[in-house]
């Protein structure tokens, strides 16, 4: 077959994968990610600095405007300023031609600022390649994303458009300036007819996990506010690192998309690192449990209602990702559609791409099924707790497999639930979705299974009489388990804190929502722990920008307001003597901390540690606002070694730990971890 120029271009547009195999397996010799860029000449630096100063002055003028439309569009301008600021300040231009790209990015920022000053925003009605921006709820930074707007898009019409989300591959040099330039100049690997394509930045190179995951959701939400998307025809797609991201979105958010097309990448941690990186892992018991946050193989039952088309090159080592998912899906009775590019390494074969596009077009005709009659849903954490009309409110124990199989029958006016490891469920059918007789209550049959423990024996079977559907054919019901019995309704309100969605740990969960770092203003119990806490605070600020491309909000302990407590997770560094905020809540945390010793309050036999050489880290509901976390002495828990391979970017610490600071912090750990563990479902020490 003759390859056209378009085919050749497609084959050449392979995702950059930077990994040195075994050379990247040495934790005490970690290369910089992103790498250090070129030194700018004095003329280039002066030119870029001067243009940036002028652009910032224009943005400041826009901030003075009282027009709501102007205020809402400032992030579309500010993304250009922030991109160039970081490129200059942190040496993130890597080749001479990157300087020319930076000029183009800066010029577009000026053009938009000038237009918006005059009340115009031509990019909002532009087809083709468009770069947009939003202000992230996590840390108030502006974040970019790209959109490909089809020429057929009608800005004044009522039509809703299919939308494909495309997750990019690993690019260690894909910092904001270069990402924006690419989205201004290159369509990318896909451009289906009459389809919006959204390209999230994902906060750089983290496989769209943690803050990168939230970036995708925030970019999509912002794009929905700007373009008319058909909610039932949004797909998740990606290749290489983007394929890994696609897998994780598919299994964790199965009801959000009409289809998913993961290509290459990875889908779990240990086997991928063994095959791709030549790395043999020796995890602690809690690390192994925490793999279950992002290891997709444990969530494959969730793909029952999400059409999934996997792609791999026949000769690509990353074919392992789809192979292991195919095996895991087979164990759930599901057969994966897996297209193979013949004699192809790390690229999308053009014939395979045609088949993918054809299959997606057919699936888009049907769109997403909003209310499937059968749902299988598995989770290990309440961070991921929803599939279509089913929500898990409470688990028996985090990080153990929990599952619900739900089937509704309109003819029988009944729902049948088979559950394991679950103690609270909510069912919500929107208007028009309930197939039940309006005049009769809905019967709920609950069968508790031990299937997750290797037995198929039902241990408990009940029939509950639920509410009737409402006249708009909606239906809602909550059930919860008390002892060995299920009851209708929500669990009675209690003053005790419980693990629930968005308040379930581990430490890294605090960095998936708005957070403020609380710096100490005083002198601590010991100079050694003081110095360590300050170093860890500085490490978080530095690495948050480098790894998650944000500017962390830092306030002194004397500056924390009631508004901060109400709206933000608080990341507190120091000890009860050095940090006034920590002092104010110390007695309400499950920790004992004095000048002599520190320990978790686990009873008479708990281990006690010399406070001069040990420091606790933990996540816990903030006693001043139990709807938000307080984190003590920790940033996100994976460190520089994990930057070298995206499959390593998983939590390293659970809900709490005791750190021996006599062992210096390194690219893996904040010191020597001498104790660590999870709180139970009531946030008590196990």
Automatic annotation (TrEMBL):
Key word Signal present: yes
Keyword Signal among record annotations: yes
One GO MF term: serine-type peptidase activity
PANTHER family in UniProt: BLL1128 PROTEIN, UNNAMED PRODUCT-RELATED
Pfam families: Peptidase_S9
Peptidase S9 prolyl oligopeptidase catalytic domain mapped to chain residues: 215-352
Organism per entry: Novipirellula galeiformis
Protein name per its UniProtKB record: Peptidase S9 prolyl oligopeptidase catalytic domain-containing protein
GO annotation, biological process: proteolysis
Signal sequence bounds: 1-19
Chain coiled-coil ranges: none
Keywords attached to this entry: Signal
């Amino acid at each position: 077959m003759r390859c056209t120029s378009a085919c050749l271009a497609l084959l050449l547009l392979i995702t950059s994968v930077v990994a040195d195999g075994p050379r990247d397996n040495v934790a005490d010799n970690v290369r910089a990610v992103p790498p250090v860029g070129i030194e700018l000449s004095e003329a280039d630096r002066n030119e870029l600095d001067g243009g940036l100063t002028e652009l910032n002055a224009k943005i400041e003028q826009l901030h003075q405007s009282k027009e709501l439309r102007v205020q809402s569009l400032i992030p579309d301008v500010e993304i250009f300023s922030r991109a160039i600021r970081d490129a200059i300040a942190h040496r993130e231009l890597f080749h001479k031609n990157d300087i020319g790209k930076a000029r183009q990015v800066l010029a577009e920022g000026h053009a938009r600022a000038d237009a918006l000053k005059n009340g115009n925003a031509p990019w909002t009605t532009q087809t083709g390649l468009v770069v947009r921006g939003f202000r992230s709820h996590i840390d108030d930074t502006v974040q970019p994303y790209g959109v490909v707007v089809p020429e057929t898009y009608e800005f004044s019409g009522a039509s809703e458009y299919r939308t494909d989300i495309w997750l990019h591959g690993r690019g260690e040099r894909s910092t904001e300036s270069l990402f924006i330039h690419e989205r201004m100049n290159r369509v990318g690997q896909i451009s289906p007819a009459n389809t919006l394509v959204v390209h999230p930045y994902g906060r750089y190179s983290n496989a769209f996990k943690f803050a990168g995951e939230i970036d995708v959701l925030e970019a999509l939400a912002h794009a929905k506010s700007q373009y008319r998307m058909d909610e039932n025809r949004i797909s998740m797609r990606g290749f290489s690192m983007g394929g890994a991201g696609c897998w994780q979105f598919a299994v964790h958010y199965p009801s959000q998309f009409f289809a998913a097309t993961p290509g290459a990448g990875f889908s779990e941690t240990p086997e991928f690192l063994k095959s791709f990186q030549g790395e043999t892992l020796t995890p602690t018991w809690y690390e192994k449990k925490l793999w279950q946050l992002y290891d997709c193989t444990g969530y494959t039952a969730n793909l029952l209602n999400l059409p999934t088309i996997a792609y791999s090159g026949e000769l690509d080592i990353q074919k392992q990702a789809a192979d292991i998912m195919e095996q895991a899906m087979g164990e759930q009775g599901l057969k994966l559609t897996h297209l193979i590019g013949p004699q192809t390494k790390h690229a999308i074969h053009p014939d395979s791409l045609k088949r993918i596009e054809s299959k997606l077009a057919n699936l888009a005709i049907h769109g997403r099924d909003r209310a499937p009659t059968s749902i299988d849903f598995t989770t290990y954490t309440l961070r991921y707790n929803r599939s279509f009309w089913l929500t898990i409110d409470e688990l028996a124990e985090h990080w153990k497999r929990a599952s619900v199989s739900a089937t509704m029958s309109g003819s029988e006016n009944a729902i049948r639930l088979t559950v394991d490891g679950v103690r609270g469920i909510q069912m919500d059918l929107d208007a028009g979705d309930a197939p039940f007789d309006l005049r009769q209550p809905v019967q709920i049959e609950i069968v508790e299974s031990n299937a997750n423990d290797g037995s198929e024996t039902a241990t408990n079977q009940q029939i509950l009489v639920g509410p009737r559907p409402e006249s708009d054919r909606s239906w809602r019901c909550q059930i919860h388990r008390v002892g060995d019995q299920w009851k209708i309704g929500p669990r009675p309100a209690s003053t005790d804190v419980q693990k629930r969605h968005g308040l379930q740990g581990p430490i890294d969960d605090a960095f998936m929502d708005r957070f403020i770092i609380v710096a100490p203003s005083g002198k601590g119990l010991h100079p050694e722990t003081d110095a360590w806490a300050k170093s860890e605070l500085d490490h978080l600020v530095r690495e948050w920008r480098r790894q998650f491309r944000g500017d962390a909000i830092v306030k002194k302990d004397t500056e924390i307001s009631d508004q901060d407590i109400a709206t933000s997770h608080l990341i507190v560094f120091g000890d009860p003597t050095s940090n006034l905020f920590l002092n104010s809540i110390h007695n309400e945390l499950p920790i004992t901390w004095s000048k002599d010793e520190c320990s978790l309050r686990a009873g008479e036999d708990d281990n006690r540690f010399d406070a001069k050489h040990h420091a606790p880290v933990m996540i816990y509901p903030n006693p001043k606002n139990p709807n938000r976390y307080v984190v003590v002495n920790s940033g996100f828990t994976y460190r520089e070694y994990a930057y070298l391979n995206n499959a390593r970017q998983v939590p390293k610490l659970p809900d709490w730990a005791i750190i021996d600071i006599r062992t210096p912090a390194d690219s893996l750990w904040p010191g020597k971890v001498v104790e660590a563990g999870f709180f139970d479902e009531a946030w008590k020490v196990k």
